Amino acid sequence: MQYLNAFWVGGLLCAIAQILIDKTKLTPARILVLYVVIGAALGAVGIYDKIVDYAGAGATVPLMGFGNVLAQGVKKAVDADGPLGIITGGASAAAGGISAAVFFGFVIALIFNPKAK
Amino acid sequence: MPDNKNKDYLNYIDKTAPKSPMLKNIALAFVIGGLICVIGQLIGDFYKKVCDLDAESAKTAVSVTMVFLGALLTGLDIYPKIAKYAGAGTIVPITGFANSITSPAMEFKREGLVLGMSAKMFVVAGPVLVYGITSSVVVGIIYFLYKVMIGG
Amino acid sequence: MAVRLGNQTMALEKNVSIINTATVVGTKESEGPLSPYFDVKMKDAEWGEETWEKTESKMQKEAAKLAIRKAGRRPSDIHCAFAGDLLNQCISSGFSARELGIPYYGLYGACSTMIEGLSLGALAIDGGGMNAAIAVASSHFCTAERQYRNPLEYGGQRPPTAQWTVTGAAAAVLEGGDCAPYITHVTSGKVVDFGVIDQNNMGGAMAPAAIDTLCAHFADTGRSPKDYDLILSGDLGKIGREIVINMMNSNGYNMNDNYGDSGCMIYDIERQDVHAGGSGCGCIAVTVCGYIFEMMKNGKLNDVLILGTGALLSPTSSLQGESVPGIAHAVALSNRPGGER
Fold this sequence. Notes:
- The complex is a heterotrimer.
- By secondary structure, chain A is mainly alpha-helical.
- Chain A has helices spanning 2-24, 28-44, 47-55, 57-60, 63-81, 84-111.
- Chain A is 85% helix and 0% strand.
- Chain A is globular and about 50 Å long.
- Chain B is mostly helical.
- Chain B has two domains: 21-121, no CATH class; 124-152.
- Chain B is 78% helix and 0% strand.
- At the A-B interface, helix 1, helix 2, helix 4, helix 5 and helix 6 of A face helix 2, helix 3, helix 5, helix 6 and helix 7 of B.
């Protein structure tokens, strides 16, 4: 059941983005920014975690999940460290994804060359 | 430069320009995006059941793994081929984030490893980090003030 | 000296001949319908070079050298090169000219560059200051993509209005003399901007400039579309071509029968998945120097009006919200001196 939920929720988030791309001429970069900010907002008020409970990876893999991780992280850090957590919380929680993207991006780019289309 | 006298022309080319095949695009984005999430779910369950990770660590491990796969498929010239059909289905998942970092890094390697590859790595993904982290700080400030007021 | 006709056109007084041409194209172009007319077909996008910028420069240099050789001349016989490309600071042309050792003027007219070069070369020869000139232009899909759009491996979708940048370079050797085909008229274009913002709809953005120059050419010369065997624009693509036919019709010019666009000719649009067609300096350049030159040489075409169209945008201007200005330059080619009937 979790797999079905992951499929349709994840698919739906992508389909909405596709509608935005085709209908509004918003560039993909703007849509990603929009998704991260929405994810952070939904995460801050605790709604996104409910979607994660329901859809699992269908909610964590799309970029909104990244926004949610940032928001959850900052709340936890504020609880633990007070005001300093405002600055450290988000990035610490997202450190895995960010460091992985930088490192793997670096290594892959060293190994492979772009191919002409 | 553009003004109202050209409005008719702009309307005319808007009308005549071929439109993206919306239904097909949306269906493909839905299916391929959904499948990428299912793969994420599979990897997460693998980490939880086989590697015995707790739920939080498994989530991070899934992100790291998906980012790796996105970067690798970009290097192998497979990701853009899927993306041609999937559109947002490959942009929105975290694999797309990896693609948006890896592709400029590869492309600008020829301008040097420091000022080319590394400097250009974030031309597409940079805004996501800037807005994401800035949002988290804003959330943090609001949450902190909220706690002070409730607790105070 | 050329004679001024109307507001924008010059009728050349001397016989300015295109004595020979050469073309270099990439793999996608050599799989297209115009393939038989191209001289050098690259096996890959690199042609033995480390970067695509170097490849593009080599393409220009080799096209120029081959055209000069085919014309039976030496580089020292050529008094001046008029060359351009799409890249910032015209590096393909500048670095190619570094090797050629021919006096060089760098041009930027976006995709209209080849026709700008033919115009200026012909006028310079007609003016008497030089007897032989070469016009060169190039574009390369990979160099253009990274400058104007996204990295090649970035996963994105191209909208159906998008055009595919041609990998191609072409050169034409011009000389005062009696060797058909001749450049008989030059119509200089104005920059026209109807406010199209969408940089993925170049055809729509450039069509008003094309129409402006076409109307000026017909008004200035007193000619009409039927005076030409072929009117060739490049590169408006499928969308721009239809706009031109429709709007020229409402201006009283019938272009239904003898009008083509290089963006629609260079690829098999459906089979090669190029959406609205080809674009880039190389598009009209290789079409004119390959196909048109051959067809005029063997007499299948005798009077051709070539209209080079360009979109004068940059990534910076687009980010700043500017619309896409268009330009179009026309040259009339004829197998008879002066195009006289």
